[in-house]
């Protein structure tokens, strides 16, 4: 619970087996250099600060105003980025590892520069918006004049959409030719969104009770204005409504306002309209020139901003994060006090980096860094590289290791791809997987920038896939399967087809002498088995027993690992009360089962019936000490089984009672430990919570649940490893079906030309299905099953996983998150 001041040099060395040794430090930093020191610590990325102001609300802390200023600048930068994205400017290529820092420029000068650019850009936007409105209005007026000319001249009569009803005036019915001759009739012309034309016409018809002529014509070119809903160009129509009377005209104007349809005054005199058209064209030409110049100047301004936008974003985010960290510290009169976690072997490096920064900036003030005792839970810090990172993620998904607990990721590097390969064993499929992963690994620098969610997952796990492919090649070699077909690398003399049986089935039978090693197939499965009719019977038995053997070895290995945790934490009670009974229980029952499987494999049963191991295990409990002579594997088997069963039975109360009784004796006269530190509940030490004050009944119940769970899980976890057998058989059968249903049929074609052409297309189909079904779907299935075997069956034997990650204040991670945000917002 306190710092071990006598840590050996070996403990301080970085190792993947255990997390780094962590020290709780206290920093005294003068106020005038506090921001620079915290910024340098962010560059180092090795200090995790602790909140010393938990009782102070977020709005009452010292640097709230500075954070708000940074947030305001971030808002401006988001505005810049949105303007750049709207203009679709070409992106600026930058080094992804570039890390800008404040030099001669300060946050104040940067703020001034950003505000000036914002002011200019807002002025450009306002000017461009006003000119756009003028240009849109003049362009609409031009189109209205053209359409009215055509309408009144009758040149576009084919496109008229007039009402079928005539206009009623003072009891007379007029047709369309008469309307233009009546001086009491007026028309209204305007522009409306094409999507609203039908509704607009319908409303007019109902509001005016059919007393109108409605005409509309499409404007071919879209407006420069874009839709607010989807950003698509807006297509418009010119409409002309012919009515009688001023009252109806007023109604139409109100309806036009409701539909946001501008109305333009157009003279009925053609000479006036021609003159107005000339004036509109002249004004359009002038505005277009000014608008193009304004757009060009605005784009140049945006391109200048774009060059520095990423740097500004990083600098402001850094500044904001520094103030966020400083809000965690206590403020004294002339200094601030910070506390946090540092890897013990990095304390001197942190001091050296801070001193170097002080010398560069000519800062005479001194900084004090002291190690401090604490009862807080220590964070877990496992150093990883690009190869081990994915394996560590697999383990952390189950639970972050407790401080200095053995890291299962070290063993997962080997056991995970191996268990995967047991289910996926095929030299051909493994080679394809290995080749794909090898390609990604070789070109990882180029492929790192690919922006695709699915590919990013594959890219992050490229080394895991590489290992899974390599192990699958090995297990495929042992299974002697290449795309489900056997290969005869070595000569086979030990097993042949025997067609002399009653039903003439091609069963494989032994004809060689097992006592002569030269007659046995040296490595892997004899190819004679893989084409035999009794292949499935033999492979079922072989792979089922192999799964049990590997599963029990895997679980016993996990149980053995727990002894190193107990020794490291000096927990003799757990060593005696948990490890020894668990190990004995597992080995006496399931270890004995593995022994009998191997013994049965190594025994020549010619001329006799081999005993059933399942019946043996059942009667080991039902009839202790008794074994039928016909079912006996070796002499004295009954006595051996009786002794093993008695040891297993003794282990149950041992597992249940020893730890509660030992802890009661240990804590009998101990007083509860008082915690004076202000610690978050989730970071308070779990040992203090559960042991002080000690409750025998609570501990007894916990051990009772743990004992029952362990005893039952011995059976269920062993059975769970049978998934290795099931998926391996399923993978082999699927591969065989694809081969027989596609390629095999093609090879049997008699005509050479047809066979060659068919083989070309069918091979493509076979390869596509192999990749889609066997590599992707079956590969994902085997991956998930291997993941479950590690999380549940293996990790539960030794791994608690109740720690929390070391999350240092790091600019490197901050920049990475910021770039991901910017990429997502594009």
Write the layout of secondary structure elements.
Elements: H1 9-12, E1 22-30, H2 34-44, E2 48-49, H3 64-87, H4 107-153, E3 167-169, E4 172-174, H5 176-179, E5 185-193, H6 197-207, E6 213-218, E7 223-226, E8 233-234, E9 236-244, H7 246-258, E10 263-264, H8 270-326, E11 330-331, E12 335-343, H9 347-360, E13 368-371, H10 389-398, H11 409-424, H12 427-442, H13 444-447, H14 453-460, H15 462-479, E14 495-498, E15 507-510, H16 527-530, H17 535-568, H18 572-601, H19 613-622, H20 637-666, H21 686-691, H22 696-720, H23 723-747, H24 752-794, H25 811-824
Antiparallel strand pairs: 1-12, 1-13, 2-12, 3-4, 5-9, 5-10, 6-9, 7-8, 11-12, 14-15
Helix pairs in contact: 2-8, 2-9, 3-4, 3-8, 4-8, 6-7, 8-25, 10-11, 11-15, 11-23, 11-24, 12-15, 17-18, 17-22, 17-23, 18-20, 18-22, 20-22, 23-24
């Amino acid at each position: 619970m306190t710092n071990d001041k006598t840590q050996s040099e070996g403990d301080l060395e970085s190792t993947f087996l255990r997390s780094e040794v962590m020290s709780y430090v206290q920093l005294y930093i003068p106020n005038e250099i506090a921001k620079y020191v915290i910024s340098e610590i962010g560059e180092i990325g090795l200090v995790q600060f602790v909140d010393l102001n938990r009782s102070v609300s977020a709005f009452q802390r010292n640097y709230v105003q500075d954070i708000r200023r940074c947030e305001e600048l971030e808002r401006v930068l988001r505005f810049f980025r949105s303007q750049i994205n709207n203009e679709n400017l070409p992106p600026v290529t930058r080094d992804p590892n570039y890390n800008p820092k404040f030099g001669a420029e300060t946050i104040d000068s940067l703020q001034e520069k950003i505000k000036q650019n914002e002011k200019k850009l807002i002025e450009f936007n306002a000017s461009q918006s006003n000119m756009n409105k003028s240009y849109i209005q003049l362009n609409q007026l031009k189109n209205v004049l053209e359409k009215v000319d055509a309408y009144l001249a009758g040149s576009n009569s084919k496109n008229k959409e007039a009402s079928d009803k005539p206009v009623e005036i003072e009891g007379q019915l007029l047709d369309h030719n008469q309307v233009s001759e009546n001086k009491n009739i007026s028309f209204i012309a305007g522009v409306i969104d094409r999507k609203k034309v039908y509704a607009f016409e319908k409303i007019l018809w109902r509001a005016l009770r059919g007393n109108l002529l409605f005409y509309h014509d499409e404007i071919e070119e879209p407006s420069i204005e874009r839709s607010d809903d989807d950003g698509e160009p807006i297509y418009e129509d010119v409409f002309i409504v012919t009515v009688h009377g001023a009252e109806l005209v007023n109604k139409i104007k109100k309806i036009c306002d409701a539909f946001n349809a501008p109305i333009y005054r157009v003279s009925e005199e053609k000479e006036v309209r021609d003159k107005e058209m000339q004036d509109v064209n002249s004004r359009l030409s002038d505005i277009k020139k000014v608008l193009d110049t304004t757009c060009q100047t605005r784009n140049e301004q945006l391109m200048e901003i774009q060059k520095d936008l990423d740097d500004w974003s990083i600098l402001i985010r850094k500044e904001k994060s520094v103030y966020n960290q400083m809000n965690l510290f206590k403020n004294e009169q002339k200094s601030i006090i910070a506390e946090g976690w540092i890897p013990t072997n990095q304390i001197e490096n942190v001091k050296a980096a801070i001193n170097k920064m002080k010398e560069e900036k000519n800062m005479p003030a001194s900084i004090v860094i002291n190690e401090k005792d604490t009862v807080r839970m220590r964070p877990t810090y496992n150093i990883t590289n690009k190869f081990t990172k994915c394996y560590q993620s697999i383990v952390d998904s189950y639970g972050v290791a407790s401080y200095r607990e053995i890291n299962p990721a070290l063993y997962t590097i080997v056991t995970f791809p191996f268990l995967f390969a047991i289910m996926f064993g095929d030299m051909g499929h493994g080679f394809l997987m290995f080749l794909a992963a090898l390609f990604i690994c070789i070109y990882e620098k180029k492929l790192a920038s690919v922006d695709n969610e699915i590919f990013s997952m594959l890219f992050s796990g490229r080394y895991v896939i590489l290992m899974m492919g390599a192990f699958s090649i090995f297990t495929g070699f042992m299974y002697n399967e290449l795309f489900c077909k056997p290969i005869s690398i070595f000569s086979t003399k030990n097993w042949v087809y025997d067609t002399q049986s009653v039903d003439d089935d091609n069963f494989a039978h032994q004809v060689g002498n097992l006592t002569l090693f030269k007659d046995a197939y040296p490595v892997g499965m004899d190819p004679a088995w893989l084409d035999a009719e009794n292949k499935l019977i033999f492979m079922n038995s072989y792979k089922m027993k192999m799964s049990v053997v590997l599963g029990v070895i895997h679980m016993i290995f996990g149980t053995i690992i727990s002894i190193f945790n107990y020794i490291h934490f000096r927990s003799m009670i757990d060593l005696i009360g948990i490890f020894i009974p668990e190990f004995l229980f597992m080995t006496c029952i399931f270890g004995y089962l593995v022994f009998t499987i191997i013994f049965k494999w190594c025994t020549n049963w010619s001329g006799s019936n081999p005993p059933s191991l399942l019946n043996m295990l059942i009667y080991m409990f039902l009839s202790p000490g008794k074994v039928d002579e016909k079912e006996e594997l070796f002499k004295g088997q009954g006595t051996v089984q009786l002794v093993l069963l008695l040891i297993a039975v003794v282990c149950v109360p041992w597992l249940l009672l020893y730890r509660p009784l030992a802890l009661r004796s240990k804590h009998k006269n101990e007083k509860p430990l008082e915690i004076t530190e202000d610690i978050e509940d989730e970071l308070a030490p779990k040992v203090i919570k559960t042991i002080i004050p000690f409750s025998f009944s609570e501990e007894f119940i916990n051990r009772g649940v743990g004992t029952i769970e362990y005893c039952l899980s011995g059976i269920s976890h062993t059975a769970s490893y049978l998934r290795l057998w099931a998926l391996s058989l399923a993978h082999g059968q699927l591969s065989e079906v694809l081969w027989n249903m596609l390629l095999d049929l093609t090879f049997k074609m008699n005509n050479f030309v047809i066979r060659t052409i068919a083989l070309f297309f069918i091979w493509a189909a076979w390869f596509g299905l192999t990749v889609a079904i066997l590599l992707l779907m079956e590969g994902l299935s085997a991956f998930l099953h291997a993941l479950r075997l590690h999380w549940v069956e293996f990790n539960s034997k030794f791994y608690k996983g109740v720690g929390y990650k070391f999350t240092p204040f790091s600019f490197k991670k901050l920049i990475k998150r910021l770039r991901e945000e910017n990429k997502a917002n594009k």
